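Sample entry (229 residues):
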Amino acid sequence: MHLENIVWDARDPDRLGRFWAAALGAEPAGDDCHRLHLGDTWLDLCFQPVPDGPDDGRRLHLDVLGGASQAARVDELLALGATRADIGQGEVPWVVLADPEGNPFCVMDDRAEYRATGPIAALPLDSADPDRDARFWAALTGWVPAEGTPGIRTLRHPAGVGPLLELCPESAPHTTKNRLHLDVRRTSPGDDELRALGAQPVDEAEGLPWRVYADPSGNEFCVLDPSEG
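Predicted structure, serialized as tokens:
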């Protein structure tokens, strides 16, 4: 299996997709911005239409590369339609913004571990047990441990490029559906391997080309059917 997509629940997928395409320099995969290609980072960005839903399902977010030009990057994102956000972060070396649908994201300071990440520096995911969940996601995706922030378990694609996946200690347990989630592409049918790793089925709907699971901390992710051809 491999990690394939970052997926947003979006009230207006076109608007949100256009924002992130401009923010990250991503290319639309078709005539609209519902799916974006992000260069050589191993991940596509997808925006799926949903009705208004809970605003507190924010256990996964993007850390955008800011680096030495962090202040200028913040100004660029504000000009594209981002807004400043206060999520209780206090005094920190990064800047918290929100996209046009209110999803918080961070513009990061300059760090050595962000070399070769591309425009997305990291994908922080809340975890009830970062050690356990790092083992789960490593086994699920083939990503490997990487240098990161103390107290956070960090994984990266084995090629050493693309964003970091960070398992961060949660401030509260999972209680509602996340507005962002990850998609994993399976290479063979069946879910015995997923259950053995600790994944739990969430959606038993039949006839769809994916199934919804939760990781050991309750974070939803989708497992896509094997690619044809």
